[in-house]
C-alpha cells in the first residue's frame, strides 16, 4: 500500500539570465510512490531538484502543478498541523534546524507541545523515550543545542522527528555535514529505528553508498527530472543511464565497473538545459552519448525491464 503518492509535480523559479527574466525548471513532471515501511532513495547532485521535491512533500514549498497524496488524500486538504503529524523532516544542517538556546529536551518537546494534547508528565515520558532511542544519555538531556557535536545534534533532530510519531520522515541530506565515521553511526541508527518502528523514509542524498545501504527503491534525478528508477535493489548493478554510471564511478570500488567518470572533477551544469522552453534532455550538455535528438527531444521514463525505468534515448532505443 502506498503511503505517499507523488503525481506529475512541477516546480519552477523565476531567475534573471542575460539581463532577461525567465524560469528555471527545478522539478519537471516527477511521479513516484512510497510504500508503507519502505525507504525510497532520491539521488542526485546539488541543484538536481531533490531537496526542492522533499520540501514540497513536507509542505514547506508549494508545487506549480501536480499532487502530493498521503494515503490518497491531497496534502492541501490538510491543515499544517495535520500534515506535520503525518510527515516530519530531518534537515541537512542540524545546527540551523534547532534553536541553539534550547536544550535537547526542549528541542524534542517542541513538536509534542505543538502537535499533541499531552500533559507535562506525558511529554516528559516521551522525551526520555525518544532521546534514549537515538542514543542520547540522560546526562546530556539538558545540554544546549550549540553544545553538541554535529552527529549528536543530528540524533536529537531525529528524536524530534520521531516525537510526532509521523507516518513518513523526509531525510534531507542527513549525513552530508558529518564526519565519515559519524555518518555510519547515523545510518545504522536510522536503519535500526526504521525496522523497529516500521517507519517510512524518503532519503534525499547525493551519496549512492548511503542510499544503497538504507533504500529499497532508488530514484536518480538530474535537472529536475527522473533519469532512472529501480524498484528493487537487485537492479543496482544493472543501472544504465549515463548520469547514473557517472555517479557510480565516483563510488570507491566502482571505478572500473563501466562508470562514466568525468575528467573534470568540478561539477559542470549547463543551466540552459533547465530553462523554460528547452525541449531536450537536461543531461545532454554533459553526456558523451548526446545526439541531436537528445538536444531537441526530452526523453520519457520507460520500463526497460520489470521494475527498472530509464529516461534516455540511448538506453531505451530498443523500445522505441
What would the keywords be for this entry?
320 residues; alpha/beta; Rossmann fold; eight-stranded mixed sheet; four-stranded antiparallel sheet; globular
Helix content: 25-40%
Q: Can you tell me the CATH class of the largest domain? A: Alpha Beta
Order of helices and strands: EEEHEEHEHHHHEHEHEEHHEE
The radius of gyration over CA amounts to 21 Å
Quaternary state of this entry equals single chain
Q: CATH homologous superfamily of the largest domain, by name?
A: P-loop containing nucleotide triphosphate hydrolases
What does this entry look like structurally?
The protein is of the alpha/beta class and about 325 residues long. It folds into two domains: about 35-65 and about 75-220, P-loop containing nucleotide triphosphate hydrolases (Rossmann fold, 3-Layer(aba) Sandwich); about 225-320, no CATH class. The chain is about 30% helix and about 25% strand. It has an eight-stranded mixed sheet, sandwiched between helices. Helix 4 packs parallel to helix 6. The longest helix has 18 residues, at about 180-195. It starts with a strand and ends in a 10-residue tail after the last strand.
Concise overview:
With 320 residues, the chain is an alpha/beta fold. Helices cover 30% and strands 25% of the residues.
